[in-house]
Amino acid sequence: MNIIVCAKLAADVSEITIDPATGKPVLQGVPKIISDIDKSAVEEAIRIREKCGGKVTTVTIGPPEAKEKIKPLLAMGADEAVLISKPEKEDYSIVAKLLSEAIKKVGNYDIILCGEASIDLFSGQVGPQIAGYLNIPQVTYAQVIIAEEKKVIVERNLSDKVVVIESTFPVLISVTKEINKPRLPNLMQIMQSAKKPIHEWSIESLGIGELSPKVEVVGIDGVPTERKNIILEGEVEETATELAETLAKEGIF
Amino acid sequence: MILIYSDNKNNSLELLGKGRKLADQVKNRVLAVIIGNAGEPEAKELIAFGADTVVIAETDMEHFKAEEYADILQSIINEYNCETVMIGSNKNGKELAPRLAARMETGCVTDCINVSLEGEKLTVERIVFSGAAISRQQFASDIQILTIPPKAFYPPPKDEARTGEVIKKSYQPNSYASKVLRVQEMKSGDVNVEDAEIIVSCGRGLKKKEDIRLLEELAETLRGNTIGCSRPIAADLKWLSEDHWIGLSGHKVKPKLYIACGISGQIQHIAGMRDSAIIVAINRDSEAPIFKSADYGIVGDLYTVVPALTKAIKEEMSS
């Protein structure tokens, strides 16, 4: 079983601050981390390989320094990693196209896994776009994956219902964060992962011509969050009464 | 032509609201698509709400599947020369739109909370960085595909006198190597947090499932009866079903009053409730980020504060 996992280098949203002067988010210097839902995808890939055998390859787009962020995925148990160089301009379609071409170059794939969305932009586009470019079946929002030799059965979580889908290979599956708890590698695994290969592929090596964005970001603004931030202090009964009175004045009752 | 499609009726009407406005700006027409075996009355209703043409795409498919639905929409887009394609942003729409975009090699933006024309360019806004920022994006492609979340726009006024064309046609999408085996409705207690006016919500500060009773008493007193929760309660502990879950991956709510009890205020949770009119936070930790997103805060243990608040509100209401 050949499994390819798309793992995004995403902005660590917990480190984003808002510049009080401009009201805009400060993005410079925000560390990049592997999107946590993608880590669940890597974990799921390893579990499928443990059951069915085969190989797990991760694919990431990023600068050469990103190798350090990919190593923990190898320590978790991925066999090999691919790092595609960062294009000058990118949008959802460029990212999906680069990943699709890299997946073709890895070749012979049965299951492609990715997170339902990335923690920073949360667009959820890349999985279905890759499936679209490769013109293969897709199953999104997977909460359970049962892989067998020739097919896979997946539970899609649609909040109000679960849709159970069966597909042969190749298939693209996007997973929810709830599908599993990614393992923490031990020291031995971390040391052994240093020997695992990280292939660095240029955009040219993927045989892609000019990539022009189909969507461009023209501005990023902070979200106005004007809240009163009134902290009521005192004994519990007093603060509770004060709050009840305040809510009454606000016309809640 | 502006194409609108959603498998949710209310969402379709909201899309018509925005689609009609955009179309009127540039003297364009609106085409609404129904996939499945719908009748004339359903199509007529979409016309009353602003559609010029309704295409009922008849298939023998029993369930939604993104692969086949993308093929059907692609045929319709090509047939009617649609430039802008607006799709309802539920989980089906969010997997349909990007696949369609890739099949057509065109641009797509999901979860647009705002859509406008700047000059000739279709410009949209979406929330990024877990709710910390709004990204403004412009399409550079000839065909623009976007998804619109529920309640982003109002349905237009209904006009029974409007006329339009209803086209019934059967479509044969390609066949794909995947199939729906079964659909299981999830257990839910008829909760609809998205429509609730008053929500009392709990997080990790809750020690055991039975203690939800404390919040229910507060909610009942407020005549709200709606209980929400943050991720750990629904996804990890499973003390409440997922239709109570409020946050980026859960539901987005905008009640008149939101009371967060024992919720620390992770940015993902804030993203789900930030549009509430009034936010109250109760938390033991005075440093909890929830207080930054709250109008009123009480620093204290929810186990003493919530019953006290229930009592105080009862007194206030009877006075």
Description:
The complex is a heterodimer of chains A (253) and B (319). Chain A is α/β, with parallel strands linked by helices and 253 residues long. Helices cover 28% and strands 30% of the residues of chain A. A 9-stranded mixed sheet of chain A has the order 11-10-9-12-8-1-6-7-13, with helices on both faces. In chain A, strands 2-5 form a two-stranded antiparallel sheet. A two-stranded antiparallel sheet of chain A has the order 3-4. The longest helix of chain A has 17 residues, at 36-52. By secondary structure, chain B is α/β, with parallel strands linked by helices. Chain B has 2 domains: 2-170, 3-Layer(aba) Sandwich (Rossmann fold), CATH 3.40.50; 193-318, Rossmann fold (3-Layer(aba) Sandwich). Chain B has 8 helices and 16 strands. Chain B has helices spanning 9-25, 40-48, 66-79, 91-103, 212-221, 231-236, 267-273, 302-318; strands spanning 2-5, 30-35, 53-58, 84-88, 107-109, 114-118, 121-128, 133-139, 144-148, 165-170, 178-185, 198-202, 226-229, 257-261, 278-283, 296-299. Chain B is elongated and about 65 Å long. Chains A and B meet through α3, α4, β9, β10 and β11 of A and α3, α4, β5, β7 and β8 of B. β11 of chain A pairs antiparallel with β11 (178-185) of chain B, so a sheet runs across the interface.
Layout of secondary structure:
The complex is a heterodimer of chains A (253) and B (319).
Chain A: E1 2-6, E2 9-11, E3 17-18, E4 25-26, E5 32-34, H1 36-52, E6 55-61, H2 67-76, E7 80-84, H3 92-106, E8 111-115, H4 126-134, E9 138-147, E10 151-157, E11 161-168, E12 171-175, H5 187-193, E13 198-201, E14 215-222, E15 230-232, H6 236-249
Parallel strand pairs in A: 1-6, 1-8, 6-7, 7-13, 8-12, 9-12
Antiparallel strand pairs in A: 2-5, 3-4, 9-10, 10-11
Chain B: E1 2-5, H1 9-25, E2 30-35, H2 40-48, E3 53-58, H3 66-79, E4 84-88, H4 91-103, E5 107-109, E6 114-118, E7 121-128, E8 133-139, E9 144-148, E10 165-170, E11 178-185, E12 198-202, H5 212-221, E13 226-229, H6 231-236, E14 257-261, H7 267-273, E15 278-283, E16 296-299, H8 302-318
Parallel strand pairs in B: 1-2, 1-4, 2-3, 3-10, 4-9, 5-9, 12-13, 12-14, 14-15, 15-16
Antiparallel strand pairs in B: 6-7, 7-8
Helix pairs in contact in B: 3-4, 5-8
